[in-house]
Amino acid sequence: MTNSSPLTQDELKALVGQAALQYVVPGGIVGVGTGSTVNKFIDALAGMKNEISGAVSSSVASTERLKALGIAVFDANEVESLAVYIDGADEIDRQGYMVKGGGAALTREKIVAALASRFVCIVDESKLVPTLGRFPLPVEVIPMAVQHITRRFAALGGVARLRLKDGQPLVTDNGQQILDVTGLSIKDPSAFESDVNQWPGVVTVGVFAHQKASVCLVGTAQGMVKTFTY
Ligand SMILES: O=C(CO)[C@H](O)[C@H](O)COP(=O)(O)O
């Protein structure tokens, strides 16, 4: 590769995963998200595993990866607060509001993010949007409410589809299901999150407005990391 070749998406994920290490507080416990970008962060974190006490993880998949690399994983109930939570996003807007849950881990991600003083979001440029709604919005739901919630999204102009895995409804780490909703334009993320969270049967809506990013590290194709603070 020459210096002028644009970086691949995988290389960009590694770039921001590495850059996120600067936010890890030595001696502390790190909140760790889920997804292919966070996997790069976890791999980088292994290089400083002797400088941290461990991690609180947002998914079974991240827990397994952390443990395989020799990083201790604490239950969220063992920890009162975290200095930092590091995670990817499916979309992020100019205010740091995000859509998350492409990896079906949104509920635990929101719980671990709520413990943290600072949310550091790591993405590549393709995730930046002016208004949330381009990426199908993940919503974790209790199975018996699927049709009711689908009708409520239809009333807002959205089309909700049950997420499948190997031809069967995907089951989350919490034993629930995921609806992916297209056709929404989320102009007021805080109000939208508060509203949908109150619908009976909704476990978690994938809009992260109340737990928005404090910092976003954006990898650019030229190999730069841009830092946005909110
Ligand atoms: O919310 C998430 C998982 O539930 C991820 O952060 C989001 O889907 C981004 O993943 P990736 O880094 O693989 O693009």
TrEMBL record:
Keywords: Isomerase. It catalyses: aldehydo-D-ribose 5-phosphate = D-ribulose 5-phosphate. Pathway: Carbohydrate degradation; pentose phosphate pathway; D-ribose 5-phosphate from D-ribulose 5-phosphate (non-oxidative stage): step 1/1. Catalyzes the reversible conversion of ribose-5-phosphate to ribulose 5-phosphate. The keyword Isomerase applies. It is an enzyme of class 5 (isomerase). Gene3D superfamilies: 3.30.70.260, 3.40.50.1360. The active site is at 109 (proton acceptor). GO terms for biological process: D-ribose metabolic process; pentose-phosphate shunt, non-oxidative branch. GO terms for molecular function: ribose-5-phosphate isomerase activity. Homodimer. InterPro entries: NagB/RpiA_transferase-like, Ribose5P_isomerase_typA_subgr, Ribose5P_isomerase_type_A. The gene is rpiA. Belongs to the ribose 5-phosphate isomerase family. This is Ribose-5-phosphate isomerase A. GO terms for cellular component: cytosol. The lineage of its organism: Bacteria, Pseudomonadati, Pseudomonadota, Betaproteobacteria, Burkholderiales. The keyword Isomerase applies. Its EC number is 5.3.1.6. Pfam families: Rib_5-P_isom_A. Substrate binds at residues 34-37, 87-90, 100-103, 127.
